[in-house]
Write a structure and sequence with these properties.
alpha+beta; Immunoglobulin-like; three-stranded mixed β-sheet; 2 helices; 9 strands
Length: 132
């Protein structure tokens, strides 16, 4: 497969694993929905789920015809092109507002939550303490 970006030079991650910088050509070993993530300084990170479909000569039944009866070797080459958008500047006030919203969500009910899962739970109250 070949992966290209506008602008070129973006770091490409395929299913969470870095595979190189655009433009790049690499082999791939399976079909299905694949996650492409492109990162380039000064540009918004681009993440797309892309269906990578098997060609006809990989379909069950037809694969036998393609591999045994046809002369030569058939190959599948995919081309993926991604346009990236310049990063938009973020004001200091917006960063502070996002941080406060995150802090309020993370510490809801006195429990530190990361991604909705408790990361640190408060220690149990001592026996005989007020309220118990």
């Amino acid at each position: 497969m070949t992966v290209m970006s506008n602008p070129p030079g973006a770091t490409v991650f395929l299913d969470g694993r870095e595979i190189g910088r655009t433009p790049l050509t690499t082999n791939f070993d399976h079909y299905g929905t694949r996650e492409f993530r492109l990162v380039h300084q000064g540009y918004e990170t681009k993440t797309e789920l892309v269906p990578v479909r098997a060609p006809w000569f990989q379909w069950i039944g037809l694969d036998f015809v393609a591999e045994v009866l046809l002369p030569g070797k058939l190959t599948d080459h995919k081309l993926y092109e991604f346009d990236m958008q310049p990063a938009q500047p973020v004001s200091g006030a917006e960063v502070v507002a996002r941080a406060e919203a995150f802090r309020n969500t993370a510490h809801a009910d006195g429990i530190l939550r990361v991604g909705g899962t408790p990361a640190i739970t408060p220690p149990p109250a001592p026996v005989g303490s007020i309220g118990h």
